[in-house]
Amino acid sequence: MTSRSLSRRSLVRGSAAGAVLAVAGRTDAHAGDHPTEPPAPGLPAATARALRAAVSDLAHPPATCAQLRVTAHGGHWYGGAGAADPASGRAARPDDAFRAGSVTKTFVATVVLQLRAERRVRLDAPVGRYLPGLLPHPFTRITVRHLLTHTSGLPDHRGLPDLSTPEAVLRHRWDRWTPEEWVRTVTHDPLKFRPGTRQEYRGINYVLLALLVEELTGRPYGEAITSRILRPLGLRRTLLPDDDPHLHGSHIRGFLRMTDGSLGDVAVYRQSSAWGEGELVSSVDDLYRFQQALFSGWLLPPSAMELLFTTPPQPVRMLDGSPARYSAGLQKATVNGVTFWGKTGETYGYRTRMFATRDLGLRFVLAYHPTPLRSSEQMIPRVVDALTT
Fold it and tell me: Catalytic residue among 102, 272, 283, 327, which?
């Protein structure tokens, strides 16, 4: 595989299957004074045409809807295709809510880094110091930093339901897990590797970090994210749903193609198995605003900002031997000579890609809604090529 294809893969994949208000001087932030961009012209006509073509092809992969918001070449662009609700044919709007999957992790990491700046947590302290008794003794060497950077070495899950068919996914959409139960599913085997020596993207790392946030703040992690990020930035369409399986207000319906060819609606889905690492509900506009605030340093002090844009040192590599690509809450990918930082997210019927250059000169939020249980990633390479060639 070429280095270019490896870089693209880091943009399109967020899992093996599929980042202080007080310290930064924002304690008085309100929804009305969040960072905003001045009006800007549109993109060059050729770039806009290429982007429209990239999101309009809803056959590759099969999808019901796509939205893309871009800043590039000093201009802004928004476009979409398909329908938010195929039954009515209503076109998607940039403030429609959808399930953003693992983009959740960037919000969790931001709060952890805020707490670190407030001197309430040490990244190189063992997680057992803050969550005693949750992990077995052999795992006590795992630190907060290891969790943030996916270098913990935690073993694979055991005892999870078989979700290998779309029908099984629908049957299990009402399952209810506690985060403690979910953590116990990774405690039956030895560590895969010595913490800090390899990197493997694992959602369980962020389940533990969300529990850490709750321990340190004394409140549900969703409330901590709301008070520290959502409310100050005015992200009114973004929330952590807790036990509520429904999407409320104007939203995009996600579907899975059943084995008989029909479409099964997965918009209603209890997200307890994604607690802490993949349950965020958001919109294209809200994620775009969050991206602007995060990369501009509005949410974090400079020392924490460096952690967002620093991957583990050179000896640390992914399990497949490729270079480490995850920092504290973001992932790195270089395509056509352009280095992006951001996060992927996906859950059944929903995919989200939120990436930018560090200076925000080139950035995008892509949300689209594939129907296969497993589908190849074809849309984001088209988008990135349109922006970088």
Answer: 102
Q: How far apart are CA 162 and CA 173, in angstroms?
A: 12
Tens of pLDDT, residue by residue over 33-62, are 555 555 557 899 999 999 999 999 999 999
Is there a contact between 72 and 362 (Cβ–Cβ < 8 Å)?
yes
Q: Which helix (H) or strand (E) holds 69?
A: strand 63-72
Which positions ≥6 away from 262 have C-beta within 8 Å? none
**Burial category of 118 from C-beta neighbours within 10 Å (exposed 0-12, middle 13-18, buried 19 and up):** middle
Q: Find the DSSP H helices in 118-251.
A: 127-130, 144-148, 166-171, 179-184, 204-217, 221-225, 231-233
- Distances from the Cα of 275 to the Cα of 50, 83, 163, 176, 350, angstroms: 37, 28, 18, 10, 17
CA angle, corner 370, sides to 103 and 179, nearest 5?
40
- 198-199 and 317-318 as β-strands: parallel, antiparallel, unpaired? parallel
Give, as one character, the DSSP assignment of residue 210.
Answer: H
Q: Rounded CA gap, 208 and 134, in Å?
A: 9
Please identify which residue in the block is written with the tokens 């009305």: 32
Q: What is the dihedral of CA 316, 319, 324, 330, to 10 degrees?
A: -130
> pTM for the complete prediction?
0.90
pLDDT tens digits, one per residue of 278-332: 999 999 999 999 999 999 999 999 999 999 999 999 899 999 999 999 999 999 9
Give yes or no: 376 in active site.
Answer: no
| Residue 355: strand pairing partners | 342, 364
Quick one: how far is CA 19 from the chain centroid?
9
